[in-house]
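Pilot study result, target chain (268 residues):
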Amino acid sequence: MDPAGKVALITGGGSGIGRGTALALAESGAAVVIADIDKAGGQETTALIERSGGKAAFVHTDVTRRDDLERMVAFTEERFGGLDILHNNAGVSTGQPRFPDAPTERWEKTFAVDLWAVIAGTQVAVPAMRRRGGGVIVNTASMAGIVQHPLDPIYAATKHGVVGLTRALVFLKDEANIRVNCVCPAMVDTPMLTREMGEVTPEERAQRDAIMARIPLIEPGEVVDAVLEFIRDDSLAGEAMGIVYGRPRRLIPAAVTFRDDPAKRMSG
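Predicted structure:
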């Protein structure tokens, strides 16, 4: 899909990967709606696009609320006439202490933002895309959804869920001309990495800093490039793209594949 003349909706568009995607799509000629719980960040992204001559609007959104998700899609259709591209990008980490010591409300929030909101956001977006004759959905997953990630088990569980959901929705390409894919970056230099650092002890901060010093961080622009590749390449559906520092991005095959659909064998 050529983004020029299309309408894009980005959750978590107030900073990091979401802001980068919003700016890139606007530069490519798309009208962009930024949905974020961070009002200041979302409005700043909108202003950056408008100052560059692009079309943008901000809608304050808590992605853990179903009514907010429905409202952001309705806002997008009312403001720009439809919805062609959705980037399910909003995300949080559980922070310290990690599961199982993490307070219930912390890990439940991670689940709600990082997985539930992707499922629900996709569900509310599909009817709008069907009205346009199709569309593209790109989910922000993580390499934590592909490999073991002991630093944050709940975050890892949600990202495994996002990868699984993305692959399972491959049927939407044939049924509704809607392609669903996901990007799986390693650690990215975004505000999310330090958002919870004010809530940890000095000793925990020192341990985290020591670990982070040994891990090269990906620039958000590398992830944005992968998002745009998924949008532009009409052949890609149900795919997960790995993005690791210092290596070319690549599609990651599922661990197990079947020659035919196992569901058909079970029902036969």
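One observation from the pilot: The longest strand covers residues 178-185. A full batch analysis is planned for the follow-on phase.
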